[in-house]
Amino acid sequence: MSIGWHPDEDATPTPREVENMAAVLEGRHGRHAAEVADFFSTYHSQSGDAGRSWAWAGVAELVRKRERQRINQVWSV
Asked: Fewest CB atoms within 10 A around its CB: which of 31, 51, 55, 77?
């Protein structure tokens, strides 16, 4: 039995996994987190892995959404 990821497996993350990925990127890359996720999305797209490209695009979108929410919170105080 093989344990781990296989290239032919579905890479669709759960919403919780997307949130965790976004949190890790924000923690490690700060304001550049969305751009890092975009990089991975583009890389997977160019490699022909649409599922992973879509997943990383979702992470980038969530990072940007959370950033907008933080900005709006600061301006509404």
From this structure: 77
